[in-house]
Amino acid sequence: MKCCAGSNCRAFESVFNASYAEDDLEDYRKHGPARATRMLLQAIQDATPVAGATLLDIGGGVGAAHHELLKAGARSAVDVDGSSAFLAAARREAERLGHADRVTYLHGDFVALAGEVAPADIVTLDRVICCYPDMPELVGAAAERAQRVLGLVFPRDAWWTRAGVWCVNLFERLRRDSLLFYVHRVAEVDAAVGRSGLSLRFHRRVGILWQVRLYVR
Ligand SMILES: C[S@@+](CC[C@H](N)C(=O)[O-])C[C@H]1O[C@@H](n2cnc3c(N)ncnc32)[C@H](O)[C@@H]1O
């Protein structure tokens, strides 16, 4: 694992800590991937063959997206995460599932590490861009590395998600190493992806909070 420095990484370590990772892992083991993640995985499988594919799971958390795609026959995965607790939980789950030898773990801010990360057939950003200040940089770097598809889950652009994020950020600003949350404009996300030559293949709202968008090359 590489070291993660800078204010983004301090915030990831502070918010996405060991107890959060434990709870998420327990939830994944009991219930499987979240509803929006399941929709993302289905959209990926409908768009491209997963068997033998390489994966890049950016901000993978406990690794639901790459665990499921590895189970579906993907060849290998790289999991880049700014939280060492989440990376450790993802690795533990990979060991339990018997595919740890097919996953590479990188600790750090993907935007800083992108230059050392190889392109992959399938790239995922599942509920990640909502906690990163520079969405165009993050999405642009992810899109450049997507050889076949790029899948995103992020908050719906609605008054209630903006109001919720505003309230959360009010409390976050009071904390040391605070992590701010963002609701991005869909047109701006599409533009950041489009600069790398990918086009939209699938989009769907999931409940009142999330949306899934899948882009193909
Ligand atoms: C809300 S969690 C989502 C985890 C998982 N993808 C899921 O959907 O369950 C966001 C994760 O993204 C990571 N993250 C956010 N921005 C990142 C970045 N620029 N580079 C690496 N990891 C990032 C955080 O550390 C955290 O583990």
Explained architecture:
With 217 residues, the protein is an alpha/beta fold. It contains 9 helices and 7 strands. Helix 4 (64-71) links the parallel strand 1 (54-58) and strand 2. Helix 2 (18-31) runs parallel beside helix 5 and helix 7 (135-144) runs parallel beside helix 9 (186-194). The longest helix is centred in the N-terminal third of the chain and has 14 residues, at 18-31. Bound molecules: S-adenosylmethionine. S-adenosylmethionine (SAM) is lined by residues 12, 16, 37, 58-61, 64, 80-83, 86, 109-111, 126-128, 131-132, 138.
Q: Topology, please?
A:
Blueprint: H1 7-15, H2 18-31, H3 35-47, E1 54-58, H4 64-71, E2 76-81, H5 84-97, E3 103-107, H6 110-113, E4 120-126, H7 135-144, E5 146-155, H8 159-172, H9 186-194, E6 199-206, E7 210-216
Parallel strand pairs: 1-2, 1-4, 2-3, 4-5
Antiparallel strand pairs: 5-7, 6-7
Helix pairs in contact: 2-5, 7-9
This protein binds S-adenosylmethionine.
Residues 12, 16, 37, 58-61, 64, 80-83, 86, 109-111, 126-128, 131-132, 138 line the site of S-adenosylmethionine (SAM).
